[in-house]
Amino acid sequence: MQLPGNGDAICAAAENGAGVTRLPTFIAADPVRSGRLEIILSDYDCTALGIYVLYSSSRHQTAKLRALIDFLVEEISDPPGWDEGIFTR
Fold this sequence. Notes:
Layout: H1 7-15, H2 25-34, H3 63-75
């Protein structure tokens, strides 16, 4: 059973044999790559969760906000960089 809470703690519990969990790949990528965790049910596709940036629709978008949006678009691509090397499909 997975309870809501800290993903790193849930990952550590799974690494220590506490059971099966469903974790985002940005939390589980390193343990999977190192062999501490194993992907099961790899043919089961989970609904992807989106990441959204909400901001005021004012006409004056700040340079800091534009830089953040550009950074997120570049860094969180499809697939995200942290997924590299963990899926063997």
